[in-house]
Backbone:
């Protein structure tokens, strides 16, 4: 029972934190006014994509925490979560696309590092981060394109 309670806590932390930050920093009129690249997805795509990704992030973190709660992979997991939660307030809240690009590049690096560290400890945790890495790589290109165009 305690095992599933800890999973619930991971889900609340990641999904709850991500959704709260998302609602607190909605794109709004500023983002709507930006010149966007042709590959910019419609706004409705972001909420379901991030909801799924946050569940994967929580589950991977929970699995690694079960194996090695104070290990390097868990520390990297924590760093990526902080960077993830920092990006929206930097980009949408402060409207600072340059610093947001730095944050998202560091986020992508931490995701890839987590995959590498988790791979030999719990391959499933590594695989759970692969869609996240792909999405953040795309978001990095999108952030850079928005900076370039605006």
Residues:
């Amino acid at each position: 029972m305690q095992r599933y309670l800890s999973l619930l806590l991971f889900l609340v932390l990641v999904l709850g934190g991500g959704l709260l930050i998302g609602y607190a920093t909605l794109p709004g009129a500023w983002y709507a006014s930006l010149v966007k690249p042709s590959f910019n997805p419609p706004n409705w795509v972001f909420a379901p994509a991030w909801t799924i990704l946050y569940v994967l992030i929580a589950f991977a973190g929970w699995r690694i925490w079960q194996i090695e709660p104070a290990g390097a992979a868990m520390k990297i997991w924590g760093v990526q979560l902080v960077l993830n939660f920092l990006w929206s307030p930097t980009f949408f809240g402060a409207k600072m696309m340059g610093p947001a690009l730095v944050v998202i590049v560091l986020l992508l690096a931490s995701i890839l590092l987590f995959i590498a560290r988790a791979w030999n400890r719990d391959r499933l945790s590594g695989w759970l981060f692969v869609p996240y890495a792909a999405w953040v790589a795309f978001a990095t290109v999108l952030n850079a394109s928005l900076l370039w165009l605006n």
Remarks:
- Residues 2-24 form the longest helix (23 residues).
- The chain has one domain: 2-149.
- The chain has a mean pLDDT of 97.
- The domain at 2-149 is CATH 1.20.1260.100 (Ferritin).
